[in-house]
Amino acid sequence: IGGRPYYVNVPNGLSGPSAPLLLALHGYTQLPTDHEKVTGWSDVAVARHFIVAYPGTQPARSAWDFAQGSKDVAYFREVVHDISRTWCVNQRQVHAEGHSSGALMAARLACDGPAVFASVAVCAGVDPNLLGSPCVPDRPIGVGIFHGIADPISDFPRAVQHRNNWLFRNGCPLTPTTEPH
């Protein structure tokens, strides 16, 4: 799309009228193929019957543009549209996940693309407004946040603030609750 690559894994034998789609976003200095190997998403897609796509940065091995109004958000919308023209994608089950720089980009998709993305998951990322770009999604959106407690860049207190920002954006209580099993 516009000279930018993306790789897609469509498992054989997808059944049903449409399949979920996951965009898997690599970290800084990685290639999409690196992220595929590290995450194992293609194997999971085969086992769980969904399509997974691995978009790439331009230039390769660079950071995503995760500012509000990002050209990368437009690129991801085009990737979803392009894949949907070829395969039957369930438009209500389009998700994104990312690691590091890809996590920040996935969070930006939650901010600026909730009409396209049902949910996002971020691993070792920071809140999008930490870098000065506002995040005001037009609806609540599912966000999974995963941090290591010894991460020197995205430390635990920052991870708690990241979680609290999403709870606030989604109109959820900040006090955790426990439900019986």
Concise overview:
With 181 residues, the chain is an alpha/beta fold.
Outline the structure in words.
This protein is α/β, with parallel strands linked by helices and 181 residues long. It is built from 5 helices and 6 strands; from the N terminus they run E-E-H-H-E-H-E-H-E-E-H. It has a 6-stranded mixed β-sheet, with helices on both faces. It is globular, with a radius of gyration of 16 Å. The termini are far apart.
What are the salient characteristics of this protein?
globular, six-stranded mixed beta sheet, 5 helices
Topology:
Blueprint lengths: L5 E4 L9 E7 L6 H8 L1 H8 L2 E5 L15 H16 L2 E11 L1 H12 L6 E5 L18 E5 L9 H14 L12
Parallel strand pairs: 2-3, 2-4, 4-5, 5-6
Antiparallel strand pairs: 1-3
Record field, number of beta strands: 6
- Which residues sit in consecutive blocks of at least 5 with pLDDT less than 50? none
Helix content: 25-40%
Q: What structural class do helix, strand and pairing data support?
A: alpha/beta
* H and E string: EEHHEHEHEEH
The gyration radius over C-alpha positions equals 16 Å
Spatial sequence of strands, sheet with the most strands:
1-3-2-4-5-6
The separation of the N and C termini measures 46 Å
Outline type: globular
Profile the largest sheet.
6 strands, mixed
Query: How much beta, percentage-wise?
Result: 15-25%
Mean pLDDT: 91
**Number of DSSP helices?**
5
